[in-house]
Structures are given as structure tokens and as C-alpha cells.
Amino acid sequence: MIKNLLENFSPENNSILWLTSAFILAFFIAFRTFPTIIYISNRKHLMDEPDSRSMHSKRTPTLGGIGIFFSLVVVMTITGAMLNTKVMLLVMGGITILFFLGLKDDLTVLSPRSKFLGQIFAALLLIVFTDTRIIGLSSILDVYTLPYWVSIGFTLFVYILIINAYNLIDGVDGLAGSIALLISIVFSVLFYNTGALSLATISVALIGALVAFLRFNFSSKNKIFMGDTGSMILGFLIAFFTISFISESQLDANSSFYRASPALALSMLFYPLMDTFRIFFIRIFVLKKSPFEADRNHIHHRFIQSGYTHVQTTLTIVLINLIIIIIAFNMLHLNLNTQIGVLFLYGSLLYYLPFLLKRRINKTP
Fold it and tell me: Which residues bind Mg(2+) (predicted)?
């Protein structure tokens, strides 16, 4: 009976049921895994110790990435046999590399060089063996097609940029997980609508794992952080989704996003990229120090210093990023260069508004 069911079942013809099952399975596995991780972390003292840069005052388990990784691998292993096995295996290979690098960094210390080399290797696995890369700039600066090796190099740069930009925003409760949840939801809809079921399955599984994680990340009693293990895996998957979306759009001249995919991708990644470029500018040109030397000048730190709570900071940033994405989808008819220029303008203004409103509220008697 089971054999006949598997032979006759087609994920493509039952996509809603398939994706719903992937979400439920990922959520259930992650939700059941996190309490065990919290228990072991407390027993073995595998905790994040607050310091001068920490936004928390209590010792907190920092191995949430284990639960995210485990749930994703189980879902991809089960579903991979009926989808694009090659893509599933390579994605699992990439996140496994980053899982062990992040785990070592969370438990002991990992040199930036080792982390960087691991990120390059994981990204190249997917770029080379799936040939999923940014083939051109879609008319940005009048560049349409890139030479093959330039395309690989540029795609690798995008991977490394997104992975590390995403790692930098993991500073207050729920922020990294909520931004990843928003981006994954948008990509799930895009992949579903374009028939990319394998990509939709991975993104939906990530949604399930993140919903479970956020339940504990926002908790006051059973709190857990995702750590470098989680943030690198999330950054890697978001980079993979971004590049896959741009690549597929550029190869399909009939796609609604044929020219607009870079602007849409930038709108989804606006916060982590803006925060990264902003913090590097401040460290290099204002503070005259290494751009990799940690401090408390991130945008989420500014929210906290202005009087916002962790939850208010997270919800405000996620809401602003959602508005940015909605506006980007309503500018598809514009020239791509115009879309990107306007995106930077309204995106920056929207992130300035919460600080302006807070100042006015504080001045009100």
C-alpha cells in the first residue's frame, strides 16, 4: 500500500499538502528539540555570558542553531527523494559545513579566517555544481551579462556578503529570526508561484523551524539564542534563495521579475545590508578602527538606546522591512536603476522615522 502510494504520489500535483507537511514536520522537530538543547546547555553550562557589549543581563543558552539545523536536515532528507535530489544534497552539504564551523565558534573560538574559508567552500558547492549564479546585472549600470568566471566571483561575493551581514544583525531578541521569517515567507510565495517546488520546500521548512525558534527566543523563562551556528545557516540559506531567485528570473525572459529581481532581492535584504554598510562606514571613517571590531553602533542598538524594548525594536524593524518589500513589488513597472535609487531613498527615510517619532514623544509634556 505504501509502495503504491509513493509511486502514484506527485508533489507537484499536491503542492499545498506537500508544503504544509514540510512546515508541520520542521516545526514539530524543532519545537521538540529546543527544550532538550536548553536543558543540556544549562546542565553543561554552555551559556552566553553577558559582557559590556551584550544586550542581555542573564546567562542564556546559545545553541539554537542546532535545532534549526536538525529540523531542516530531517525535512530535506525525507522530501529530497521526491524532489531535486542534487539541490537538496548540496544545500545539506553547505549548511552542514557551516553548522560545524558555527558550533565550534559557539562552544570555543573559531578564527575569522577559518570561518571565511568555510563560507567560501560551502557557497562554491552550490555555485559550481548547480550552476546557480547571477549571470548578469539586469541592466544595472548598463551591464547585462557577466563573463562566466566574473559571474562566479560576483555570486560568491554576494554569498559572503549576505552570510556575514546576517550574522551582524543577531543582536536583540527575535530580530534575526523574525527578519529571516519574513524573507522566507516572501521567497516561499515566489518559488511556489514559479513552480520551483524544491526551493519552496526548503523555504517552508525554514519557516517551520523559525516559528518554533522564535517561541523560545522571545520567552523570558526558556530563552535560547541561535548563536553563530544559527545565524550562519540562516544567512547561507537566504543567500541561496536570493541567488536562485535572481538566476531563475534572469533566465526566463517571460518572467514578471526578469529585470526587477535584483531590486526585489535588495528590498528583502535591505535591513541587514544597510546596517552592515552603515556600521562599516562608522568604524572605518568615524571611529578610525577595524571594521570587524565589534561595538554597539548597530541600528538595533540605536533603537534600544532611544527607549524601544527588544520586542518593539524587532517588530518595528520587521514592519518597516515589510513596507519596503510591498513598495518594491509595486514598482515593477519602473526602470531597474530607478527602482534601486528610489528603494535606497524611501528605505532610509522609513528607518529614520521611528527615531523622529520617539524624539517627538519624549518632548511632549
Answer: 167, 228
